[in-house]
Amino acid sequence: MANVISRRGFLKSSLVAGAALGLGFYDSKKLSVNNRFDTIISNGLIYTGDGKAPIKGAIGIKEGKIAAIGSIGDSADRIIDAKGNAISPGFIDIHSHTDGNIFISPLGDSKIYQGITTDISGNCGDSSFPKGKWNSVEDYYNDIKKQRAGFNVRSYIGQGTLRQVVVGDNNVPATAAHMKEMKSLLAAEMERGAVGMTCGLEYTPGSYATTEEIIELLKVVAKYDGLFAIHMRNEDDRVEEAVAESISMAKAAGVRLQISHLKAQNANNWHKAPQLIKQIEAASREGLDIAFDRYPYIAFSTGLSVFIPMQERQGTTDEIIARLNNETSAKAIGEYAVARIKRLGGAQNVVVTSARVPENKRFIGLNIEECCKLTGLEPWPFIRKLLVEERVSVDMIGFAMREENVKLFLSHPLGMPITDAGASSPIGKLSENMPHPRAYGSFPRFLGKYCRDEKLMDLSKGIQKCTSLPASRLKLKDRGLLTVGYQADIVVFNPDTIIDRATFAEPHQFSAGIEHVLVNGVWTIKNGVATGDLGGVIA
Ligand SMILES: [Zn+2]
After folding, report:
1. Domain 1-90+479-498+509-531's class?
2. Which of 129, 141, 294, 475 would bridge with 134, disulfide CB 3.0–4.6 Å?
3. Alpha helix segments (H runs only) across 130-288
4. CA 456 to ligand 1 center in whole angstroms
């Protein structure tokens, strides 16, 4: 167990931490004697989120904020006994795909049950606005406020969405008028509280933007000190070039950079991981504000449409389906798909995880090899049929990464864990799909498997990566640390038992060891079970 420092030592270190944060220090005596707290979490091992050793003590909460830490008496409306467990800031998922799912699962079941109290949507170039139901990030936030949510929400604006709305679905250059409109929309969204802009350069239509076009947009993001998060143009054979492009775009625009779900995909690229780290470290040394994130699994999750070449993914869904139905174009697409499956190590490495057509639901959870046995089809004819019947929208999981690289990325000081998944739920509509288990298990797996069992780092450093590190990237002013004056987003977990339970075969499993979760002081998970109260706000 990590060392426990003395009360005097704690006060000294908290003064330093408080001063560093510009908060000044608190008078614990005044707070403990004169204030009655709404809630006290007592008898815990407090990890403040700054990476330092934990201290024994209690936390007093008043009006949704942390009001005192240390020996604070017992004057409160309710007392939560932490029973010696770890008390940590709530986890912050800087790379989420919750987006519209929050309206299907307001609690955000798969997230809140793993201790995530702040969830950042709009990743990989795709945001829920300004399109369809929501004209702006403000509309999206307002609907969440009206409905209420289990965790705090923020969103990036997706560059792919922006291009779709202004330029359209095709591979055409943006005109001067397009650029002007995209920049003004982007500026407006930054004003309204988007945390930055994301790219998903393996997806259409965002990928049709040139490097120069993206740099022009990033200059707007830089003006607001927003964050640029990028799902790079390539994550396998040309991943080094893609990292170099990401860095050069951020440098040219003067924007802070977050490389999303860093990976070196396919066995022939596994050896490249240390080189990617070298590129990132060099950029950091040269003064670029850069970091990256990664989910703690060796399988990735995406759409089966990645087996269609980018150029053939242009236009409307009907146009794409027409190409799949045309024998000549389908033959060329098939050659691309077969080559890509080969690079992934074979059809057994690709698992179908969603289907809406009733007859296709039997494929959910099976790999392509198994689907082929069941249907008597070869891999490409099977994939082609499925894409046509499902109107191009099929989710898949691919096993294509190496454990050693997961550890390399997660243990690096600039790396942090993410889910790269939307909120899911074992009940209702969201229970019908087979999400990647990362939707349920990422943070407990990182702390339990990687920090505790495999000793990648001590728990204090692990918690820092789940809390203050992402908060600092997002410039969240009052989250990510247990400090007086900060919002009371708090997780109480058992450091000896915390672990993921979700598997690829049975993903809808909550993690073990999460005892209590508070969001802005609202007790949301009590003794491992949801209370039904929702405390989330726009972070
Ligand atoms: Zn992505």
Report:
1. mainly beta
2. 129
3. 137-147, 159-166, 176-191, 211-223, 239-253, 273-285
4. 25
Residue pLDDT, tens place only, 212-252: 999 999 999 999 999 999 999 999 999 999 999 999 999 99
For ligand 1, the distance from its centroid to the CA atom of residue 229, given in whole angstroms, is: 10
* 239 Cα–ligand 1 center, Å: 14
What is the whole-number distance in angstroms between the Cα of residue 199 and the centre of ligand 1? Answer: 8
Q: Give the pLDDT confidence score for residue 32 in this predicted structure.
A: 45
422 Cα to the center of ligand 1, angstroms: 12
pLDDT of residue 34: 55
Ligand 1 centre distance from Cα of residue 203 (Å): 9
Cα(26) to centroid of ligand 1, in Å? 42
The mean pLDDT of the chain is: 93
Spacing, Cα 362 to ligand 1 middle (Å): 27
Ligand 1 center–CA 125 separation, angstroms = 8
From the number of C-beta atoms within 10 Å of its C-beta (0-12, 13-18, 19+), residue 366 rates as middle
Q: How far apart are CA 348 and CA 368, in angstroms?
A: 6
Phi and psi of 419, rounded to 5°?
A: -95, -35
406 with 294: CB under 8 angstroms?
yes
Q: pLDDT tens digit string along 40-67?
A: 999 999 999 999 999 999 999 999 999 9
Cα 511 to middle of ligand 1, angstroms: 24
- Homologous superfamily assigned to 91-298+401-436: Metal-dependent hydrolases (3.20.20.140)
Query: Strands 299-303, 290-294: parallel, antiparallel or unpaired by DSSP?
Result: unpaired
Are 156 and 145 a contacting pair, CB within 8 Å?
A: no
**How much is the pTM?**
0.88
Spacing, Cα 14 to ligand 1 middle (Å): 38
Which residues lie across from 259 on neighbouring strands? 230, 292
CA of 102 to the centre of ligand 1 (A): 19
Is the pLDDT at 18 greater than 70? The verdict is: no
Indicate if the pLDDT at residue 36 is higher than 90: yes
Prior bond of 205 cis (ω within 30°): yes
How remote is the CA of residue 334 from the centroid of ligand 1, in Å? 24
Are 297 and 437 a contacting pair, CB within 8 Å?
Answer: yes
Parse the chain into domains and list their residue ranges: 1-90+479-498+509-531, 91-298+401-436, 302-399
What pLDDT score does 25 carry?
39
Please give the pLDDT value at position 3: 37
How far, in Å, from the CA of 302 to the mean position of ligand 1?
Answer: 8
Q: How far is the CA of 56 from the centre of ligand 1 (A)?
A: 40
200 CA to middle of ligand 1, Å? 6
Nearest in space to 217 (alpha carbons), one of 256, 187, 260, 175: 187
